[in-house]
Amino acid sequence: MNKTSQILNGIIIVALVVLYVLFFNQKKNVVEPVKAVAGSESVVYMNIDSLLLNYNMAKDLNEAFLKKQEERRTNLNIKAKALEKEAIALQKKIKNHGFITQARENQAQRNFMIKRNKLQKLQEEYGLKAQSEQAEMNKKLYDKIMSYLKVYNKQKGYDIILSTTKGGTVFYAKQGYNITNDVLKGLNKGYKK
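The chain above was modelled as a monomer; its predicted structure follows.
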């Protein structure tokens, strides 16, 4: 996976978690009047793309994730090349009638199939590990950002802090409503490797 797709996956997961939390934390059967927010100074937004691209914790987690992925890919490639060489050797031996009995040839083919299946299972296992690790990474980032926003908002007193992405839900906002840089500075200041 390249960095852009990982970042986009992270953004999507964060957005889904926010929607999930908002949906299930609503009070049931209670209708509250909608407050008008037009002209309200207590509604701000942050660009989650910029935040995740520049947040040191996100960079470090992503780098560690990519390193693991590269190690796994290298391991798989080494095993796949060895298996490919074995397949070529087996085909040559079969073609040249190199087995004394049909039973030995069948056993060699079964052994090869077992090795191929193990490699496929390892590839699937690595894929599942990558998904699990990415979900865990996204949860850590989400939890850290939400935790920081609670502290941040105690000082600022905003009614609503929106999250957006490039081309997302906030198409226009007056200068001063974007708190991305302010939040990013606070997150990076508090982050320790």
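The two ends are 24 Å apart (CA to CA).
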